[in-house]
Specification:
This protein is mainly alpha-helical. It has one domain. It has 2 helices and no strands.
Length: about 70
């Protein structure tokens, strides 16, 4: 990592969004193994992972160390 980069703090909203996105991924990841899982859970998990990845990538580009 670039050690010269200034460490920035996430806003309360960014912290909440990151926590929610991570929870979505975790919940859907667990649900996909249940016998009564929804038919679209795999697609929802893929979408949730992509959203989390894009959010984190955007924060990193903005100078946040996550």
């Amino acid at each position: 990592m670039d050690d010269q980069r200034e460490r920035r703090e996430l806003t309360t909203f960014q912290q909440a969004e990151l926590k929610w996105l991570r929870r979505q991924v975790d919940t859907l990841d667990q649900e996909r193994f249940r016998s009564d899982a929804r038919p679209n859970v795999q697609r929802e998990l893929f979408t949730a992972r992509e959203e989390l990845d894009q959010f984190v990538r955007g924060l990193r580009v903005s100078g946040f160390l996550i």
